[in-house]
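From the shared-data thread, chain only:
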Amino acid sequence: MADVVEVILEDHRTMEELFRRMRSVEADRAKALEEFSALLIAHGEAEEAEVYGALKRFKGVDDEEVEHGEKEHAEGNEALLALLEVDDVGSDEWEERLEDLVKAVTHHVDEEERTILNGARESVPDERRAELGAAFLRERKERLASGCGSIENVRSIVGG
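Structure, as tokens:
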């Protein structure tokens, strides 16, 4: 049984590891970005499709924070697109746009963990969190299989 809070937290830790790889001049930065792009898009889309709406029904989860989380997903996606559009992973532009992405995503992750996920852990029954975890994982898997991290797909998401 996959608790939705734990599954989301796991993805957050994976994103942080991918940030470390993208910052490292010794790592395959392009490969790390490819993995990050797919995970960020699949994660955010699965949260919005399967988790956020369900959490709004619980008193201990702040509806405004959930809606704010959706806005922050859009900001993260815009920062991701800006980085995907840089050709040279060794350039100053790459570094600047990477830091913009790190800032946007880290801010969202921190806020989501403190507000939405803590509220869910305290207010949503274990069984419901497991159901939401399974739904989240199914949706995320479908998105990943569809090539959701491609620059074309990120452009279409950002463009509306």
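The mean pLDDT is 95.
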